Amino acid sequence: MKKAVVAVVLIPAVVAVVFAFKSFLFSSAAAGAQTSERAAASLQSKIDTIKRANDDKNRRVQQKLEISEPELESYVLVALKEDIPVRIESMRVRLTPGAIAADTRLTIPPGGTGNALVDALVDGTHNLYVKGKLIGAKGEGKFDLQDVRVDGIPVPNILVDTLIKRYAKPKYPDVDLKEPFDLPWGIDAIDIGQGKATITY
Prior knowledge:
By secondary structure, the chain is of the alpha+beta class. It has one domain (about 1-200). Helices cover about 35% and strands about 30% of the residues. It contains six helices and nine strands; from the N terminus they run H-H-H-E-H-E-E-H-E-E-E-H-E-E-E. Strands 2, 3, 4, 5, 6 and 7 form a six-stranded antiparallel β-sheet that branches. It is globular, with a radius of gyration of 17 Å. Residues about 1-10 and about 20-35 have low confidence and may be disordered.
């Protein structure tokens, strides 16, 4: 019973991770030496480069840049931590051809849900795993959620959909996992390979 409640309460974290995938394509936060302000700053610099290129109306040549797993991990931990409703202890991103996965350790602090009964059941540290396919071509992206697990327990996609409506829609009205989305900042394509993502802009 407790694990079922934990799975339900952690869905806002799933929503945050998935939304981060869509908002800048992927996200994550790694603990230890790989997580660093420098790696987060490196990704932010690449985002700024893409934005500047998009603003340059005279630019005619497409360019590419690569984003690494440690950059994604650090960016979420450092730059996106305020957008995630629980504390991320660690996160490991795995990029494989066409797919992205995030294995995250989260801590829900006492009183974190605002409901004393639920808090008694779910506070503490839990493992969250999210995997999906990400396709980006011709300025359009599509994320297909394949697997969500909380403490090893599979979470049905229908439950994820329901909780996205409840927790993500009020803050991000355009979020919809089933619909394609425009890639931001004039990005034309995303190619996810082994350990890296190549952005064409």
